[in-house]
Design goal:
The structure holds two protein chains of two kinds. Chain A is of the alpha+beta class. Among the domains of chain A are: about 130 residues, 2-Layer Sandwich (Gyrase A, domain 2); about 80 residues, Elongation Factor Tu (Ef-tu), domain 3, CATH 2.40.30. Chain A has nine helices and 21 strands. In chain A, strand 20 and strand 21 form a beta hairpin. In chain A, helix 2 crosses helix 8. Chain A is globular and about 60 Å long. Chain A starts with 7 loop residues before the first helix and ends with a strand. By secondary structure, chain B is α+β, with helices and mostly antiparallel strands. In chain B, a hairpin with a 4-residue loop joins strand 1 and strand 2. Chain B has a single domain, classed as OB fold (Dihydrolipoamide Acetyltransferase, E2P), CATH 2.40.50. Chain B is about 20% helix and about 35% strand. In chain B, the strands form two sheets. Chain B has a six-stranded antiparallel beta sheet. A three-stranded antiparallel beta sheet of chain B has the order 4-6-7. Classes of the chains: A alpha+beta, B alpha+beta. At the A-B interface, loops of A face strand 4 of B.
């Protein structure tokens, strides 16, 4: 048995199929993964993401520390509540984890990191923080619920205290708000609008049930995975790890190269990789025929080395199979994937495949 | 868990077989199998007239989660395949013992090891423990 979130009993009661995810007993689906996927694209879904790790940083050295720790630059966060997506790199430029940093107030930041990487992340952050005036505090007593979908904010807003409803609805994308005991962020992992809501564990079950009562569909990790794949978002441990640089994972845009004298961890090796025009690149793949692309299948490109699918599956929105992959450098549109001993044609496309309910590629 | 149809035989690979009156055998996957796979999104079917060996790969069912081979529980010649599964693979989720049938074979020999409903129920109960 793994760790359980404060919502575990709700999941079991709702008939969820429970699976292990990074040491946590999590709901895979509550009956139909496809229905849950469509609920988020068309209406609203709720995800228990309490397994994720919340880390609060405070102190006069907090900003300076984060500017060293992260490949993106928290100095870009000028307004309170603003969020920043970044990779945390090792000294070789490999990705230890990807995370979101929220700028709460001067000298105060919140990081939300992945569940499966909790132990190594905390060890790394503590080690790096030692020489800075910063206090690092994990917040395991907090739960987290993501409500996602075109109707998610409107439906979930009714669950907030009156005083927070308007400010919450006024949040711009990638901004967050401390709302009493709640922390409400207009962020997510589905390619749809919505909030991620951090709240005390003791309130989680009640909030979850109110979400359901408001018409927000409970969704499991299965739908979360197909939604993020359609949105072209990486899953740590699947699409990238410590042997992969953000440059090869389609995350070059998250590296803040300026100012040039900001010495973030991994910068040197990363700069060398950046100069290498032959490095593998990140791409989306669309299967031209029927069948399903899967993780680790081989991508064959004429006259080049092989690539590899890092996440493949069936896209419920496109009703076709899609994948994200690391493929050889170069500009080309055609490739093949080895699926069960056969080579199937795929088209190399940009991501996202789907965003805000709309298909973003030519089918 | 739904009741297992009494007129079927079952395999450890979670397939079911129905002996038809004309001597042919209809094959599908069990409710337990479809439930474990989750929503099905693609089914690869054999060709009609194709010969299959007992224990050989006969079809592939792919769900949102994984691909799974369907092995022939009996050798023979493919008489008919359920073409509707190409468009509606979820028929297997909805009605695994009815509209979700996969293949009808003309057997060329005896089936391998099969179980009656009680034995199969005991087998899956043990797996769930």
């Amino acid at each position: 048995m793994g760790s359980q979130t404060p919502l575990y009993a709700c999941h079991v009661e709702a008939g969820a199929r429970i699976v292990d995810f990074g040491g946590w007993d999590m709901p895979l689906h509550y009956g139909s993964q496809l229905e849950e996927h469509h609920a988020v694209r068309r209406h609203a879904g709720a995800f228990d993401v309490s397994h994720m790790t919340v880390v609060d940083l405070s102190g006069s050295g907090a900003q300076e520390f984060l500017r060293r720790l992260l490949a993106n630059d928290v100095a870009r966060l000028k307004e309170q509540g603003k969020a920043l997506y970044s990779c945390m790199l090792n000294s070789d430029g490999g990705v230890i984890d990807d995370l979101i940093t929220y700028y709460l107030a001067p000298n105060r930041y919140r990081l939300i990191v992945n569940a499966a990487t909790r132990d190594k992340d905390l060890a790394w952050i503590d080690e790096q923080a030692a020489s800075y005036a910063v206090e690092v505090v994990e917040r395991p007593e907090l739960a987290m619920i993501a409500v996602q979908g075109p109707q998610a904010r409107a439906l979930a807003a009714s669950l907030f205290d009156d005083q927070w409803r308007e400010p919450a609805l006024a949040l711009k994308p990638f901004y967050a708000l401390e709302a009493g005991e709640l922390f409400i962020a207009r962020t997510g992992y589905t390619g749809e609008d919505g909030w991620e809501i951090v709240l005390p564990a003791a309130q989680a079950a009640s909030f979850w049930q109110q979400c359901n009562a408001a018409g927000i569909q409970p969704c499991g990790l299965g739908a979360r995975d197909t939604l993020r794949l359609e949105a072209g978002m990486n899953l740590y441990g699947t699409d990238m790890d410590e042997t992969i640089s953000p440059l090869e994972a389609g995350l070059g845009w998250t590296i803040a190269w300026d100012p040039q004298d900001r010495d973030f961890i991994g910068r040197g090796p990363l700069a060398d990789m950046r100069a290498d025009s032959g490095r593998r690149r990140f791409a989306g793949l669309l299967l031209e025929s029927k069948g399903v692309l899967r993780n680790h299948q081989r991508v064959v490109v004429e006259g080049k080395d092989d690539g590899e699918i890092t996440s493949g599956g069936f896209s419920p929105t496109l009703e076709r199979s899609i994948a994200i992959a690391r493929i050889p450098a170069g500009d080309y549109e055609r490739a093949q994937v080895e699926v069960r001993n056969r080579l199937l044609d795929v088209r190399v496309v940009g991501v996202p495949f789907v965003r805000n309910g709309k298909i973003r590629i030519d089918l | 868990m739904s009741e297992l149809p009494g007129d079927l035989k079952y395999t450890k690979e979670h397939e079911w077989l129905r002996q038809e009156e004309d001597g042919s055998v209809t094959i599908g996957i069990t409710d337990h199998a479809q439930s474990a796979l989750g929503d099905l999104v693609y089914v690869e079917l054999p060709e009609v007239d194709q010969e299959v060996e007992s224990g050989g790969e006969m079809a592939v069912v792919e769900s949102v989660k994984a691909a799974s081979d369907v092995y022939a529980p009996i050798g023979g010649t493919v008489l008919q395949v359920n073409d509707e599964l190409s468009e509606d693979p979820e028929k297997i989720n909805v009605d695994p013992y009815g509209d979700g049938w996969i293949v009808r074979l003309q057997p060329s020999g005896d089936a391998g090891e099969t179980m009656d409903p009680d034995a199969y129920q005991a087998f899956i109960d043990e797996l769930d423990e």
